[in-house]
Amino acid sequence: LLGLDPTIIFYMGQNKSHDLDPTDALFVDVIHTGAGILGQWGPNGHADFYVNGGTSQPGCFSTSLIKTLSCDHTKVTPYFIESINSKKGFWAVPCTNRISYNLGLCNPPSDKHYVLMGEHVSHKARGVFYLSTNADKPYALGFPGGRRPPFIP
């Protein structure tokens, strides 16, 4: 089950049984692009991916706050669509939080710890992951450091 920046709008009450969570399917992966604003902060799944920190997406800035926030929230769709046929891939690093990611403190012990986000995510993936994108198409940056990934789907 895939959550594309699950909305916070209709789920702000006390009944958490309506929230997306790992008990909803054998594997739940969630891609966050507008977390804490229009989207839920999470984590909500077995694997949660925070694109560009999970909140502000490159290429979304506008003089209109509503346009900026809605762009952040809906940018998840083109990211996922691109992941289907991307030759580079959206490779994410396991990391405990956004601050550590932004400071460059998330350094897995080996390349096999990176996880591919999107259509080709491994159902064995567990945890919280962060990744960056380009502001414009193609969004995928490929494997970190331009190295060859551990596998290509």
Fold and architecture overview:
The protein has a single domain (2-146), classed as Alpha/Beta hydrolase fold, catalytic domain (Rossmann fold, 3-Layer(aba) Sandwich), CATH 3.40.50.1820. By secondary structure, it is an alpha/beta fold. The mean pLDDT is 90. It is globular, with a radius of gyration of 15 Å. It has helices spanning 65-74, 76-85, 98-102; strands spanning 2-4, 29-32, 47-51, 90-94, 115-117, 127-131. It has a 6-stranded mixed sheet with strand order 1-2-3-6-4-5, with helices on one face. The longest helix is centred in the middle third of the chain and has 10 residues, at 65-74. It holds the Pfam family Lipase. It is found in: Secreted. Keywords: Secreted.
